[in-house]
UniProtKB/TrEMBL annotation:
One of its GO terms (molecular function) is ATP-dependent protein folding chaperone. Keywords: ATP-binding, Nucleotide-binding. It comes from the Eukaryota. This is Uncharacterized protein. It comes from Xylaria hypoxylon.
Length: 342
C-alpha cells in the first residue's frame, strides 16, 4: 500500500495546557502564507468523556488533570477517575524537585497526597503523567477526526506546543519532554513529516491569548507594561510584562519575577463542600431522617458538585445574591433542600 502524500503547505498546531488541576487543548491548521496571530483561530476541544457511560460527554474547555489505576490495571482519567480508585491529582507539581518547589507548594497537603498516591502505584511521576497525556492525546485525535476527517489528520504534519510554568528549570522541562515522548505524542506518523514540539511559558501564553482573543495588537506600544493574572484551578500567579517589540513579531519580557499562591478554584470547591456538609449536619440535628452528605447516593453528590455547583452557583455568583436553595435529591418519600446563605 503506497504511503499517503505528505502535505507541505501547512501544519496542524496543537496546543496542550497541562495544568495542575485541569488540562485544555486547542488546535488549528496553519497554512503557508499566514501573516500572524490574527490569522489564526484556535479550535478548543470542548467535549470530554463523562464520569460514566450513562452520561453525556462533558461540554467544557477543560478536563480534570486526574488519573487513576484500577485494581485490574486499567486506566481511568479526567472525570472518570474517582476517589474510590485512588485518583492522582496535582502530579504536575512533582516534576520539580522538592527543594525547587515554592514554599507555599512544598508544605501543601496536596503535594504530599500526590506524592503518596504515586508511590502506591509503583510508578514514577513521568510515567503517571505520560499515561494521562496518552489518554488526552487519543481523545484529541478522535475529536479532530470527527471534525475534519481522517484524511485531514493523516496527511498533515503536527507541531505540538506545550505550556510550562515560568519558574520551571531545564530539568523539569526535560522530564515533561520525556512524558510527551512516552505518551506517544511525538511518535512518527506514516506518510507525514516528523512531529515537532516546543515549550512556551504559561504566563507568556496567557498574555498572547488575551491579546489575541481581544484583538488588542493595535493597542500595544513599545515599552508598555501590563500585568497578567493567571487564575488557575490550583494556583494563582501574577506576572508583569513589558512590550519589547511589536514588529516583525510581538516580543514580551518579564519585568520582575512573578509570584503566586495556592488560592485557585480548587480551594473554592473545597470551601463549598465544607459549607454544604456543615449546613446538612445542622439540618440533620433538626430532622434525624435526613441523610448526611456521606450517606447520600454518589450520583446525587455528583449532581450537586458538577451541575449545581460547578456549572451553576460557581459560574453565576454575583455579589449581593441572597442565597441558593440546593435540592438534596430523593430521600425516601421526601426531597429535602437546604438554603446556602450568601
Amino acid at each position: 500500500m503506497p504511503l499517503q502524500t505528505i502535505n507541505h503547505n501547512g501544519v496542524v498546531v496543537i496546543g496542550i495546557d497541562f495544568g495542575t488541576t485541569f488540562t485544555g487543548v486547542a488546535y488549528d491548521y496553519i497554512r503557508q502564507g499566514n501573516q500572524g496571530p490574527s490569522d489564526i483561530t484556535p479550535l478548543p476541544i470542548t467535549l470530554w468523556p463523562a464520569s460514566s457511560a450513562t452520561e453525556a460527554n462533558s461540554d467544557s474547555p477543560k478536563v480534570p488533570s486526574c488519573i487513576a489505576y484500577t485494581s485490574r490495571g486499567a486506566i481511568t482519567w479526567g472525570q472518570q477517575a474517582s476517589d474510590e480508585q485512588g485518583s492522582i491529582l496535582w502530579s504536575k507539581l512533582l516534576l520539580l524537585d522538592e527543594h525547587d518547589l515554592q514554599t507555599h507548594l512544598k508544605n501543601s497537603d496536596h503535594v504530599k497526597q500526590a506524592r503518596e498516591s504515586i508511590q502506591k502505584t509503583g510508578k514514577d511521576v513521568v510515567t503517571v503523567i505520560s499515561d494521562y497525556l496518552a489518554k488526552v492525546w487519543d481523545h484529541v485525535l478522535e475529536d479532530i477526526i470527527r471534525a475534519r476527517g481522517r484524511q485531514f489528520l493523516n496527511t498533515r504534519p503536527f507541531h505540538v506546543v506545550v505550556t510550562v510554568p515560568a519558574i520551571w528549570q531545564d530539568y523539569a522541562i526535560e522530564k515533561m519532554s520525556r512524558a510527551l515522548k512516552k505518551a506517544g505524542i511525538l511518535n512518527k506518523r506514516p506518510g507525514c513529516a516528523d512531529t515537532t514540539h516546543t515549550f512556551v511559558s504559561e504566563p507568556e501564553a496567557a498574555a498572547l491569548a488575551a491579546i489575541n482573543g481581544h484583538n488588542k495588537y493595535d493597542a500595544l506600544e513599545h515599552g508598555q507594561t501590563f500585568v497578567i493574572a493567571d487564575l488557575g484551578g490550583g494556583t494563582v500567579d501574577l506576572i508583569s510584562f513589558r512590550v519589547k517589540a511589536i514588529q516583525p513579531q510581538l516580543l514580551l519580557e518579564e519585568v520582575v519575577e512573578g509570584d503566586g499562591g495556592l488560592c485557585g478554584a480548587t480551594f473554592l470547591d473545597q470551601a463549598f463542600l465544607s459549607c454544604l456538609e456543615k449546613k446538612v449536619r445542622q439540618e440533620k440535628s433538626k430532622l434525624r431522617s435526613l441523610q448526611s452528605w456521606q450517606q447520600m447516593h454518589k450520583e446525587e453528590q455528583k449532581r450537586i458538585t458538577n451541575t449545581v455547583w460547578e456549572k451553576g452557583i460557581k459560574r453565576k455568583y454575583y455579589d449581593g445574591q441572597p442565597g441558593y436553595t440546593i435540592d438534596l435529591g430523593a430521600q425516601g418519600r421526601r426531597r429535602p433542600n437546604i438554603l446556602l446563605n450568601a
